[in-house]
Amino acid sequence: MFEVEIKVPADVDAVRERLREAGAERVDGRRQRDAYYDAPHRDFAETDEALRVRRETPLPSGISPADAADEAEGPDPGSNAPPTAPETTKITYKGPLLDEGSKTRAEHETEVADPEAAAGILSGLGFEPAATVEKRREFWAYDGFTVTLDAVDGLGEFVEIERAVAEEGAIEAVRDDALDALDRLGLDGAEQVRTSYLGLLLAEDDADASDDG
Question: Which residues pair with 16 in a beta bridge?
Fold first, then answer.
C-alpha cells in the first residue's frame, strides 16, 4: 500500500470553512501522541524511514487552542456527556519517499492491544525512543481524499491531503488530483512541506540548541 500525501502550512479555521462550503464531511477528530524509534541496525535519518507507535484518543471538539483548553478541563461534572472513549494504539512503518512531488511512501500499519508490551518488544530488540510528536487532528472527507487539519505542538497548523493506492503506477495521477483539490480549497501545492513533523521538530530543536550555544 502507498500513501499519496501532500502537506502545506495553512490557517486551519479558514480551510475548515472552505471544506464546509464545498460540502465536505467531518468524519473524525483525534488527539495523537507519536513516539518515534531509532533502529539498532541502520540510521533511519539517512534511509528516510520511520517506525512509530501512535497512541490516540477521540477529539470531539475542534483543534484550536481554546478547544484544547476545554478538553483539558474535562466535561462539567453535572453534564450528561458520554464517557471518554478508550485510547487506541497503532504501530507503523513508513518507507522512504517515492515521489519528488509529494510525501508518498510505502506504509504498513496495525493496531496493537497493549502499548506497553509493544514498547517492551521494541526495546528488547534494540529500538530506542528518538522523539515524540503531539498533535490534534480533524479528518474530513472531500472529493475522494482525506483532508486532515493539524495543530502540531511546537510547529503550528498544517493541512494534509491524502489517498491510499495499491499500485505504485497510480501515484502520479493521484498526486495531480490532490494538487487540484488543494487549489480548490485555496491552498498552494507549491508551498508543500515534504519533511515529516518529526523532522521539522528535530530541526527546531537543533536550531534552538545552536541559539543557546
Answer: none
pLDDT digit string, tens, across residues 126-183:
999 999 999 999 999 999 999 999 999 999 999 999 999 999 999 999 999 999 999 9
Contacts of 105 (CB under 8 A, 6+ apart): 2, 3, 5, 94, 95, 96, 97, 98
Q: All 3 cell numbers of residue 86?
A: 478508550
Contact 115, 89 (CB under 8 A): yes
